[in-house]
Amino acid sequence: MNHAPPVSSPDAEAAPPDDTVLWIHPVLCELGLPIRTPRGHWHRDAGSASLRMEAPSPDQPLPSGRMLRLNLIHICDAARRANGVSLDLGADASALAERMGAAGKTAELIDQMHRMMASKITVSWGGGPDVPVFDARSRPRGDLPEWRPKIRLSAKFLAALASHAVGLDSRIVRTLGDSPMALDAYAWIRQSLGGAAPDSMPTAGWDELLARFGSPSQNAASFRALFEPALRMVFDADPSIEIAVDDEGVSIRHARGEAEPAPEERPAAGSPEAPPSEPPAPPAPSAAAAPPPAPRAIPPAVAQPAAAPPAAAPAAAAPPAADRITEDSICLPRDATGLSQCLWLRRGHGAEQVLVGVTPGTRLDPERLTILAVEPMILQVSGGLHQGDFDRVSAWIMANRDLIDDFWDDRISTFQEVRLRLRKAPAPGWR
Hints:
Distance between the termini: 27 Å
Number of helices: 13
Strand order of the largest sheet: 12-13-14-15-16-17
Structural class: alpha+beta
Oligomer: single chain
């Protein structure tokens, strides 16, 4: 992935209010810290960023795990807000642990803080020199006290932090606080999207992600098995992002809001993924649960012919007739959902059981139709999907439940609204 240059604040639409933002150095977003405890020396280099930690002796344990990440997030945020190298952590370590969302973990916090302050930690980015995180005067000269209320950052690290900090939502950090890899994944996503256009989709391959967040003992497959659940946690915690995972890697983007879907994401006319220009007339359904006749696929945006402006524009124009949903069922093509099948939404006409249809193509073939009931849990009513396909479709249903319910209850009248509210399927196996 070609990361955008670090920016001074997260994307305006995705950034949380300032009272909930936590600021962090971009290198700590691009590179994962150790999860298990290394000894003596540890380093990571990926892209143009590097991160190094060196203990006073080869057998001394270095900091690691979730508390190292929470400590550095808190220190970076406090330093940026105070704009000073000298930080007062407070006389009460237990109070700090509670503010960090780690109440009851005071002993772990103190231990990791001791290891961190005893080590030499440096970062570099953009081909620049190594910059120490902490002022050398902060490193202990003898036995450490039980708790050190004051620490000092290096002036160069503070300068970079002041101009290039990445904003994290404190509520999401608290939610993910028990998972070091989920914290890494969240920080990486926020940094990657911070300078990205609303309709862009940064992508990183598994080898690149392994270099940034894995360990030397892992291969891409074993790393993926651990990183996907972390991405799932981030996806569940942060509704402002969308994540797609496949064998090539991970793609991320801002969740669809008011912006029109990017034209390149729509299928070209005549392609296998393109919705039919005229909706097929399906045979009469053989089961009560089957969608009603005359389903339609979501069409691409319709170019309107040029016309002279009216003498007086109406206060609110009705949607174009071509965009109104006039049938009881619509087909969501594969490019719109990120699935390998087509999904069918239908009107409920007062029925309580919400249903979703699944077909391998854009034509409604009753012999190849699977009907899923959404409540009280997702179940196959008719047809059949392999377990992997069922898991993917179920994950899509969970991510789009509000859209499904509103269409079922006839609260959506245009294809435009469907397009704007669609979220693509998360990673395989997500529920």
